[in-house]
Design goal:
Belongs to the FMN-dependent alpha-hydroxy acid dehydrogenase family. By secondary structure, this protein is of the alpha/beta class. It contains 16 helices and 12 strands. It has a domain of 252 residues: Aldolase class I (TIM Barrel). It is globular and about 60 Å long.
Length: 418
């Protein structure tokens, strides 16, 4: 596997090759990991005025200005050195296009279907917890914006609005993200409630037996503000988070989340619900095969937005390995670092059936509520459609592996030159 090499070795090999003369590509290699700065403390683009926003990343600086430090840091930060956080973005920038020309692109269709549900585009909303810290409308605003855009919203277990409240915002195709609590009665009840509230699938998060070490939250002694609660657990006396000596969320997870979770529980989940189960957090071929064997309906290649284990590869670097191991037996989705329509195209070219966006949604929510989330979805949609046009693709099925060139492609042609 190509990333069994230490990453810097890979960069050195590639940087020494005359094959890699793209300035964009070199930009990704020449920056040593140690000098890269994480999102919580790192430099941001100057905030655009609200009417001047031209890409989804510009909401981050506005969110930083608007939000209390504890809330902003919770949304922006990631685990430890935040190496994977940077890498989730940089790995996209090392994938280049091989566009086709002189193809009639006057009509472009980006509709698709996910688990049998027809949606307007292969761009969906990832589960992000506690959205009412970003905006008073929180998950309601996100649900309305996703529904208006004709796409899927995934609601976090740790939402500050309940499954019933989100369902009451109106029609929409929604998935429910599940954290498995030690108390399985709690899990059973919650899954049943989600099912009754019309949620169409369970996204089972499997990368969080313990919470990753998010140093910004530790420094801030992060805790959910007292006027909010984890609404899905309110009636169960698990809706509040106590102040702790470090991160209140890390302590909550240590107290409530089941560290024994294993593949047999994926089977168990299928006995308590008929909803399809997406396994969220797979990044290896080995686990892909186990997901297939254990009845998953799909896989989300995710490193939790780099908030769990630092120094895992970018999701876009892990995608192909998973797609190959899945052998078309289930759909493979991706999240992590998707900020441009070009990123969406790259993920689809490498075999993803669709992508999910996390942070841009919360930053836009903080900046402009529902209108902000709508604008994020619109900008990604428009950029993606333009990328299709400029690559000579009129339907998602036209996007092929030959439309992109990756690091591993370049490595394959290198040995004779070493
Ligand atoms: C998350 N993520 C997450 N995942 C999950 O399964 N349950 C959750 O409650 C949360 N909460 C959460 C909060 C915040 C603030 C962030 C940034 C992320 C992970 C999320 O679903 C997704 O995997 C990443 O956010 C995708 O990466 P990007 O788009 O943020 O780079």
């Amino acid at each position: 596997m190509y990333y069994s090499h230490p990453h810097h070795t890979l960069h050195f090999l590639l940087a020494s090759s005359a094959l890699t003369h793209s300035p964009l590509y070199l930009q990704g290699q020449t920056q040593p990991a140690a000098s890269r700065r994480g999102a919580a403390g790192g430099s941001l683009r100057a905030p655009a005025k609200m009417g001047e926003i031209t890409n989804v990343m510009e909401y981050q600086a506005i969110a930083k200005q608007k939000l209390p430090k504890m809330a902003y840091d919770y949304y922006a930060s990631a685990a430890e050195d935040e190496w994977t956080l940077q890498e989730n973005r940089e790995a996209f920038s090392r994938i280049l296009f091989r566009p086709r020309i002189l193809i009639d692109v006057s009509r472009i269709d980006i509709t698709t279907s996910v688990l049998g549900f027809k949606i307007s585009m292969p761009i969906m909303v990832a589960p992000t917890a506690m959205q009412k810290m970003a905006h008073p409308e929180g998950e309601y605003a996100t649900a309305r914006a996703a529904s208006a855009a004709g796409t899927i919203m995934t609601l976090s277990s740790w939402a500050t609005s309940s499954v019933e409240e989100v369902a009451s915002t109106g029609p929409g195709i929604r998935f429910f993200q599940l954290y498995v609590y030690k108390d399985r009665k709690v899990v059973e009840q919650l899954v049943r409630r989600a099912e009754r509230a019309g949620f169409k699938a369970i996204a089972l998060t499997v990368d969080t037996p313990r919470l990753g070490r998010r140093e910004a939250d530790i420094k801030n002694r992060f805790v959910l503000p007292p006027h909010l609660s984890l609404k899905n657990f309110e009636g169960l006396d698990l809706g509040k988070m106590d102040q702790a000596a470090d991160s209140g969320l890390a302590s909550y997870v240590a107290g409530q989340i089941d560290r024994t979770l294993s593949w047999k529980d994926v089977k168990w989940l299928q006995t308590i619900t008929s909803l399809p189960i997406l396994v969220k957090g797979v990044i290896t071929a080995e686990d892909t095969r186990l997901a297939v064997e254990n009845g998953a309906a799909g896989i989300i290649v995710s490193n939790h937005g780099a908030r769990q284990l630092d120094y895992v590869p970018a999701t876009i670097s892990a995608l192909e390995e998973v797609v190959k191991a899945a052998r078309g037996q289930l759909p493979v989705f991706l999240d992590g670092g998707v900020r441009r329509g070009t990123d969406v195209f790259k993920a689809l070219a490498l075999g993803a059936a669709g992508i999910f966006v996390g942070r841009p949604v919360v930053f836009a929510l903080a900046a402009a509520g529902e209108a902000g989330v709508s604008n994020v979805l619109k900008m990604l949609r428009d950029e993606f459609e333009l990328t299709m046009a400029l690559s000579g693709c009129t339907r998602l099925a036209d996007i092929t592996r030959n439309h992109v060139v990756t690091e591993s492609d370049r490595l394959r042609v290198m040995p004779s030159r070493l």
